[in-house]
Amino acid sequence: MARRAPAAAPTKGLDRRAPARWEERSVSRVLSAGRERVLARSRRFVRAARELLAEGGLEGLTVRSVLDRTQLSRRAFYERFDGLDDLILAVFEQTFRDGAELIRADMAAIEDPLERLRFVIEAMVLGARSEAGIRYAVVMSRGHLRLAEARPDDLERALEPFTDLIAEQLAAGMERGLVRRAGALELATLVHSLVVATIHASLLSRASGGVRAEDSAAALWEFCLRAVRADPTSR
Question: What is the DSSP string of 79-141?
Answer without folding.
Answer: HH-SSHHHHHHHHHHHHHHHHHHHHHHHTTT---HHHHHHHHHHHHHHHHTSTTTHHHHHHHH
